[in-house]
Automatic annotation (TrEMBL):
Residue ranges of every copy of the Disease resistance protein winged helix domain listed in the record: 1-56
Gene3D superfamilies named among the record's database cross-references: Ribonuclease Inhibitor
Keyword Flavoprotein belongs to the record: no
Keyword Cell membrane: no
Keywords: ATP-binding, Nucleotide-binding
Protein's name according to its UniProt entry: Late blight resistance proteinR1B-19
Sequence intervals crossing the membrane: none
GO term, biological process aspect, one: defense response to other organism
Amino acid sequence: MWIAEGLIHEKSGISLEETAENYLEDLINWNLVKVEKMRPDGRVKTCRIDDMVRNFCINEARNENFLQEMKRSVNELEPSIAELEKVRRLCIDSNLLNFLYLKPRRWSVRSFVCFSKKEVQLSRNESRAILSAFELLRVLEAKSIKFTTIPHGMYRLVHLKYLTLSVDLSILPHYFSSFFNIQTLIIDTTSHTVEIKANIWKMVQLRHLKINAVTTLPETGKGSKEGETSVHLVQFHQRVAEKKYSKGLAI
């Protein structure tokens, strides 16, 4: 997500992912972030921060107009919809339905993150409300939002660089190829298998693909020479990974 937000810049000889991990290690060494789980290869998997540090970060982010957290106060949400005029990053951890009921429409929002502790299931109309409210999104972290179907008009969010989607699907449709700016795509589904019909090799910015179901990468297509591809996947995760290699592709 840091990469999609444009917070990580390229350095000579170092990938964006390596640079981001170095920044995370710095935060850990400064005791600002605590490691919770490690990966088998020794890298950090999950981390957390103390409540005091979290509150400080939220307040500073709000004061700098970097991030705004929506929260419920008595019988209404704070801040008000009118106060979101210049907000570029919006986070909501509860009361999502109440927020959508207000019919927000903010062109300035570039990142919408929902970290609700409980899964929120949206109707088709409620799903469309998110898309119509924030048409210039670059980051949509919506794992806790349960979409009954892939929202109509999702393909219009062509600026997306980071997308986490929780939806019941068995096919990744063709129109996902239109996300030509996407760098990270995470699909959470109840289906045991997912067929990829989207031409991911045309998604030239794609770096991370994660699907919690059995799937295989599609063939590179006739436009490739000797198996070379225009996409460099740094990570490809699936529930049961079938090893599949192609020249120029890192899995």
